[in-house]
Amino acid sequence: MTTYKLALRNLLGGGVKTWLRVGVLSLAFLTIIAIQGVYQGINEQGSDALIAAEAGAGQYWHEKYDPQDPLGLPDAHGVVPKELSQITDAGSAAAILIVQGFMYAGGNLRSVLLKGIEPSQRALSLPTSVLTTTDGEAPALIGTRMARDAGLKVGDLATIRWRDARGTFDAEEVRIVHVMNTSVQAVDSGQLWLPLDRLRRMARMEGEASLIVLGKDATGPGHLAGWNFKDQDFLLSDLRGMVQAKMVGASIIYLMLLFLAMLAVLDTQILSIFHRRKEIGTLMALGVTRGAVIRMFTLEGALNAVLAALAGAVYGGPLLVFAMRAGLPMPAAIEQAGFPIGERLYPAYGAVLVVGTTALVLIVTTIVSYLPTRRIAQLKPTDALRGKLA
Amino acid sequence: MSDQAALIRTRDLVKAYPMDHGRLVALNHVNLTFQRGEFAGLVGPSGSGKTTLLNILGSLDQPTEGSAEVLGHKVEALSHKEAAELRSRHIGFIFQTHNLFPVYTVYENVEFPLLVLGMSAPEREKAVRSALEWVRLADRAKSKPSQLSGGQSQRVAIARAIVKRPEVVLADEPTANLDAENSRNILETMVGLSRDLQTTFVFATHDEKVIRYLRRKIVLSDGQVVEDTVAQAQFAEQGVRR
Questions:
Q1: Is B86 exposed, middle or buried (0-12, 13-18, 19+ CB in 10 A)?
Q2: Do B60 and A5 touch (CB under 8 A)?
Q3: How close, in Å, is residue A286 to chain B by CA atoms?
């Protein structure tokens, strides 16, 4: 306790120099937490959006379905097994049929994925209920990106062309009944959502689907012949992989920040020991053991991090809370980069992140503070009193 | 000097430093004893071994040969920790350059040795107030060393040395940086403390102003004791200005 008091007294006695050092360290603290929180936010927000709009609680894929292989789509469909049709009928799972097609709108022909989904499904948070409103033409639901790219708006007609299960080309007009605003590009760009029954009839794939998405409360029936279950971890792995890759870059930034802050602490410690040789000698003359002097100097360095954490909490805490609540505006480019986070990103500053970062900085600061003090162990009191280092 | 009830005793004390060719003998077979309440000075020119002897008596250094016994502890046999313990409990130091901690106030500087001893806060406060009154600096308790004159700083150093009521105070050229008036004040303070608290003061000095106050003068030359005399009785007993 005495060592702690003395170290704190010495540190605070340093005045402006101490506070400058604490300022730099607290800035490093905050930046590390802020950047980490942003990536955590992307991960959480992106995962939530993907789960809600695309992944659900997991998916059963037809054994030939591969989202990376559009050429395999004509074969990637099959009759929904009875075990799954029971939960799709209850609305807690959504059967999706995917057919490769083309859309002619605004004078342009573009390749699209025609996706059939049950309008009454509750497994995904897509506004599929709009697909029930029809007065002849098939109702179609598209996202804002698709609408922007194809120049479509609600009420517009578009001609779609596809090849049915027998390989026959067919075409039909669809009417855009709703343009949904979603942060998940995978359910928007190049996609046209149609009522499942309608697409099944159009494609001559009665009772069939390419995949079945389980809602958050649904439980899958386990292994099904001809269908492969893909869990959430698998379905979110791309997003998590991207976040992870970005975090490597961020880690480099905060390692640099930490390095700079630690350099300041190390530099201070070395200078401190050099300038305070006489003081060290006096401490020894007054009966302080070498071990206690080392502890005092180490603690003095480590207390920089404690003060920095407190200072960071005072001026940075409200900033982080504000960012968490109000969110940070995000450019559209971030969604094009594959991060489904919408217009605002809400950083996530969890207890683990804050406590973990604080503990990490404290430990590193303590180690960095300790290293130069080892010289004190070799110091003779008489040399120190004369202002000599060993 | 009588060997009975000796607080400090050296026997054939030798301190030598290895040099490129041979060794430099700083203390050469020094035999001395100091009794409780003595007010003694090690006198001699620079390089005569005064500070070296003081450092060994203060357990800051160890003899090369012979023995130095302080309060029954053989300095040469003490570990770093035991030596620190001896200093913290029984020995006070006064340095030529005061060696006060610049970030501490006067009060905190004086309090420091008591913190090292782990004394309780009320006990500390009582002892610090009392020590500051002895050196007539109670009104400067909240000042920082940078706000004090040289004489005041040295008085704080004295207060720090005596606050724990040590048996021995070792002072290395305590008046070297002070003018005549301040030196006189400092010395009178120390004479008074020695008389009132029965503290043994041992000085290393070549300052004539100090020498006049000594009750015992030990002259060192080239590491050897060449004179060991008791001064005139009136200074010893009076402890007041001449």
A1: buried
A2: no
A3: 5
Per-residue model confidence as pLDDT tens for chain A (390 residues): 567 777 887 888 778 888 888 888 888 888 888 888 888 888 888 888 889 889 999 999 999 999 888 888 888 999 999 888 888 888 889 999 999 999 998 888 999 999 999 998 989 999 999 998 666 789 999 998 899 889 999 999 999 999 998 889 999 999 999 999 888 888 888 999 999 999 999 999 999 999 999 998 778 788 888 999 999 899 999 888 888 888 788 788 878 888 887 887 888 788 878 888 888 899 999 999 888 888 888 988 888 889 989 999 999 999 999 998 988 888 767 766 667 777 788 898 888 888 888 888 889 889 988 888 888 877 888 888 887 765
| Same structural domain, A193 and A71 | yes
Q: Are residues A214 and A319 in the same domain?
A: no
User: Can you identify the CATH homologous superfamily of domain B6-238?
Assistant: P-loop containing nucleotide triphosphate hydrolases (3.40.50.300)
Chains A–B, number of C-beta pairs less than 8 Å apart: 70
Q: Are A72 and A152 contained in the same domain?
A: yes
Residue type for A376, please? Answer: I
Q: Are residues A162 and A250 in the same domain?
A: no
Dmax (CA) of chain A:
101
Q: Which helix (H) or strand (E) holds A191?
A: strand A191-195
Q: Are A290 and B80 inside 8 Å of each other by CB?
A: yes
Q: Do B93 and A9 touch (CB under 8 A)?
A: no
What is the complex's ipTM, to 2 decimals? 0.89
Cα dihedral sign, B60-B144-B134-B130: negative
CA angle A342, A346, A351 (to 5 degrees): 150
Residues A71 and A192 in one domain: yes
As given in the structure block, the two tokens for residue B218 are 């030990």
Cβ-based contacts of B84 with chain A (< 8 Å):
284, 287-290
Question: Does residue A390 belong to any structural domain of this protein?
Answer: no
* CA proximity to A96, closest of A50, A61, A57: A61
**Which DSSP symbol is given to A201?**
H
What is the domain extent for residue A144?
A: 59-230
The phi and psi torsions of B28 (rounded to 5 degrees) equal: -125, 100
Assigned domain for A88 exists: yes
Residues A212 and A265 in one domain: no
Q: Let me know if residue A270 belongs to a domain.
A: yes
A210, A230, A250 - which closes a domain = A230
The token pair that represents B188 in the structure block: 């009178």
